Amino acid sequence: MKLLIGGYTKKKATGIYELPLKKADGLEMQIGPAKEVIKVGGPTYFVQDDKFIFTINNAGDKGGISSFELVNGQYTQKDSYLTPGSSPAYIGINRNKKLLYTANYHTAVLAVFSYDQDGSLTFLDSVTHTADTLGPCPEQADGPHPHFFDETPQGNLVSCDLGNDCVDFYSFNNNKLKHLAKYQNEPGFGTRHIVFSPDGGYFYVVGELSSKINLVAIDETNWHFKNIATYSTIPDDFSDHNGSAAIKISRDGKFIYTSNRGHDTITVFAVNADHTLQLRQRISTFGEFPRDFNWDEGEKYVVATNQNTDNATLYTRDAENGCLTPIQKDIFVPEGTRVLFSE
Known about the structure:
By secondary structure, the chain is mainly beta. 0% of the residues lie in helices and 58% in strands. Strands 1, 2, 3, 4 and 29 form a five-stranded antiparallel beta sheet that branches. Strand 2 and strand 3 form a beta hairpin. It holds the Pfam family Lactonase. Belongs to the cycloisomerase 2 family.
């Protein structure tokens, strides 16, 4: 097993790094030294399909996505789709349909691409968010900021817009995007990322600007929404700046995890039988500004990256109570914002 970690390339980093993950001397898993395997600008988010990596690419005055193929132990660039201006903030994937979904925070564009067996990219369609419901925070004053674009449990598409404080739903048929519905978060929520319950009847959306998780019941057939509850990801007495970032739900639907940039923690919630949340743990990431974290296929090991302090932390996860236990700290990896476990 190995890790792939990428992020900004503004200081020390130059691309995507690979770190080995293996048991050492009969002990728990340990992460080895990072080595660069893909040289690319600003791979702040990327996804994998077998031998292919599809990554955000900040190429100077252009931005977009690029594909890389693993051949004889080396990654080779296969294709790129770049346009003038900023690169996207998020890339999602459907491996069966060979589709990629990107959200561009700066240009407000959501786009869909296809890829073939050679890693070649084809642009299919896009929509641009407008400033319909901009929030009151300074980060929202300059327009819409979609930060997430991926699939729903029923195979529709969903975006999270930090500027507009909303969750938008789309269909994608005959290579065309069509807007279906909108759920509006409270003003200043800063809608960022979303996860769905295993039964598809509820979603948990995290607000970057509010440091909150909003639990919502959803009828994805009739597009009815019910706002159930909202939970803080940080302590009530924490007054410094915080920006919540990634959110994950365990495969069994019993636990929710979110990262806090500023409080520098991962918050763990247990999911009750009625889908409401109960705070279980807040644990340090042992660094500053943890944007992303992820787990292995078995959800036993969790890795969080700290963007500002160039380090990562390895935890074990207890499947019964959801809690994390750190087993390795101060793993050097520069400017990390995206974590992906890879076999």
